[in-house]
Design a protein that fits this description.
mainly beta
Length: 276
């Protein structure tokens, strides 16, 4: 039996399950199968400075044979059909920074069991990247990346830039604005281009176009229903060269003015840990 919960900020003295995110630039860079991966020939990449993240779905799986959706579902974000097909409702998404509580639910409501794996369906990223202008000057800018299966977006902002969308956007939609110069743009990565590491692909695959990143706890997480203290899960995400583009000028710098196209914005691995 699985249960659905929404995020809660209520304070209580009872033991809680708390979930937070961490961004690690030194964590292993993995491919879709959860294997070590280098930057593809002809491409270049950089490790962004992360500001914010959001998740659409959180699930704990007892073992490698547990199919997606058959574990204990901790969280499922609001969805909408305002844009036609079913999609994540970005207006209702919970967006957090590193170390901020994303989820807090009573432990008594979590199904007792032994859990080896964590599944995290990521939906939104916001981070700083460096770009090179046609003048040769390097600038810093903010990129918003929508990596969920489908997201309904009304209007969203990046710093002083506003992006009216009012439509569904498939995985890989992005928008960008320079920090100190009045310039903004947006685009759409090709279908299937976003890396989603899943070491359980052989036994528990994920749907194409989803962003369910999978990682194993270093030691099994046991919930037995007698906990008296909080259990805090930290979801460490690899941002190691996670922003990748196809080079036109082979200088290791992202140059939109040279038609260097973004090819991947996927996070590069998940390592879940816990403190009881």
């Amino acid at each position: 039996m699985v249960s659905l919960y929404s995020c809660s900020s209520e304070t209580t003295s009872e033991p809680m399950l708390i979930v937070k995110f961490q961004f690690d630039p030194n964590q292993a860079r993995l491919n879709n199968l959860g294997q070590p991966s280098t930057v593809a020939p002809g491409n270049s990449a950089q490790t962004p400075i992360f500001n914010l993240i959001s998740s659409h779905y959180l699930e704990m799986a007892p073992n490698a044979n547990t199919q997606l959706g058959q574990g204990t579902i901790l969280y499922h974000a609001p969805e909408t059909t305002a844009g036609g097909a079913n999609a994540i409702d970005f207006n209702q998404s919970k967006i957090v920074s590193q170390g901020e509580t994303f989820l807090k639910i009573p432990l008594k409501d979590v199904l007792a069991g032994t859990y080896q794996w964590m599944r995290v369906s990521l939906s939104y990223q916001n981070y700083q990247i460096s770009v090179k202008a046609s003048s040769g000057t390097d600038y810093e800018g903010t990129l918003a990346s929508f990596v969920g299966f489908n997201t309904y977006i009304s209007t969203f902002n990046i710093a002083d830039y506003s992006f009216p969308v009012n439509a569904n956007k498939a995985q890989g939609y992005w928008a960008f604005g320079l920090n100190d110069v009045n310039y903004s743009t947006w685009g759409q990565a090709a279908p299937g281009a976003t890396t989603v590491p899943n070491p359980l692909n052989a036994t528990s695959p994920i749907p194409a176009g989803s962003c369910v990143v999978t990682g194993r706890f270093p030691t099994d997480l046991v919930i037995d229903g007698t906990e008296t203290k909080d259990v805090v899960i930290t979801l460490s995400l690899s941002i190691n060269n996670s922003f990748e583009w196809h080079e036109v000028n082979a200088d290791g710098k992202y140059e939109p003015s040279a038609n260097e196209n973004v090819v991947d914005m996927g996070l590069r691995g998940l390592v879940p840990t816990y403190v009881k």
